[in-house]
């Protein structure tokens, strides 16, 4: 998934969530109004494939998947389920995440089913042409896996979607699941317990029985698979749970103001509203909708933007440190030479740590 579509920045949760709801529901109703060139999108996707195919990252991830398959006493993946991929025609992260999904499909020769409310109509056409099964309804991540080994692909999905998936498979059959998503250790160790109890209770509960393999983030575009891990739940680990561990199961409920994903109710409600608006005129020609779109995209915080901001903050910190160091040097020089008259070039060079090619007289 692209964090562009699902991940929220907490300090802007309300604004970001509005942007998500609007963009995602637009894709379900009037996505044909957003023009994309299928041929260009497919070409860019195929251009991205070799970067993954011949990368060290691909070697590492296939090695790690083979490792967990061996732990699970199998060498086959029967199905891949993907949630939250995002708009691969528009976002770099989504494009490469889809490229990896296709690589895994070919490597393991298995069926792939996927869903994201953000998909455009032409993106869905492309996915179907690539022999992928596009799920028709918003399941909110609540799909029950079969008794065969299933690979769940949820890169950069919000914790609540991961939590929903665990709830729907809250039994010993989790041992047939390989889950590639946000690092559980990062989620648990970097969050307050009350916060986890509220938004990721099932992640917190299964964490002690989870085998996690962190992916080495050495892909060319580091934001695409950052903080991502492979998780499995071995039969041996699950045999250690308490007798009522699986019985204590309640459908996750999140307050509307806290929801980090597009719910099924929102999908249906927003679809009806947008269809009603579009009866009189095309959506892209509606002045109100034009304004909303402009506001949503002007405040969009994509993974690439956040990554760039992180680098800029690092550069700013280094510049400020250099400034503080120079100020300290200046004060030291001033204190040392106040009232002593003019310094020689060599003395000045020694003070600032500069090596002269020769010692001037």
UniProtKB/TrEMBL annotation:
Pfam families: SRR1
Name under which the protein is recorded: SRR1-like protein
InterPro entries noted in UniProt: SRR1-like, SRR1L
PANTHER family reported in the protein's UniProt record: SRR1-LIKE PROTEIN
Domain SRR1-like: 72-232
Family, similarity comment: Belongs to the SRR1 family.
């Amino acid at each position: 998934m692209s964090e562009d579509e699902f991940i929220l920045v907490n300090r802007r949760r309300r604004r970001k969530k509005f942007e998500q709801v609007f963009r995602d529901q637009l894709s379900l109703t009037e996505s044909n109004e957003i023009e994309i060139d299928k041929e260009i999108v497919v070409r860019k996707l195929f251009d991205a494939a070799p970067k993954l195919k011949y990368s060290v990252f691909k070697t590492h991830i296939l090695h790690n998947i083979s490792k967990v398959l061996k732990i699970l006493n199998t060498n086959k993946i029967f199905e891949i389920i993907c949630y939250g991929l995002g708009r691969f025609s528009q976002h770099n992260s989504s494009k490469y995440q889809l490229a990896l999904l296709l690589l895994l499909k070919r490597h393991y020769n298995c069926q792939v089913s996927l869903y994201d409310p953000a998909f455009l109509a032409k993106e869905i056409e492309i996915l179907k042409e690539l022999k992928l099964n596009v799920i028709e309804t918003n399941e909110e991540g609540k799909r029950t896996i079969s008794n065969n080994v299933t690979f769940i692909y949820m890169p950069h999905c919000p914790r609540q979607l991961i939590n929903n998936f665990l709830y729907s498979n809250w039994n010993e059959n989790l041992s047939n699941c390989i889950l590639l998503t946000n690092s559980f250790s990062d989620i648990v160790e970097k969050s307050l317990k009350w916060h986890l109890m509220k938004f990721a209770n099932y992640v917190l509960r299964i964490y002690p029985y989870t085998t996690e393999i962190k992916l080495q983030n050495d892909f060319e575009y580091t934001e695409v698979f950052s903080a991502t891990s492979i998780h499995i739940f071995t039969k041996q680990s699950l045999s250690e749970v308490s007798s009522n561990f699986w019985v204590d199961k309640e459908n996750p409920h999140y307050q509307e103001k806290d929801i980090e994903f597009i719910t099924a109710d929102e999908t249906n409600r927003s679809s009806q509203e947008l269809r009603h608006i579009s009866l009189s005129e095309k959506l892209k020609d509606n002045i109100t909708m034009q304004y909303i779109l402009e506001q949503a995209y002007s405040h969009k915080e994509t993974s690439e933007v956040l990554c760039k901001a992180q680098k800029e903050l690092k550069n700013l910190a280094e510049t400020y440190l250099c400034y503080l160091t120079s100020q300290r040097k200046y004060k030291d020089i001033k204190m040392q030479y106040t009232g002593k008259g003019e310094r020689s070039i060599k003395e000045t060079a020694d003070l600032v740590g500069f090596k002269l090619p020769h010692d001037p007289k």
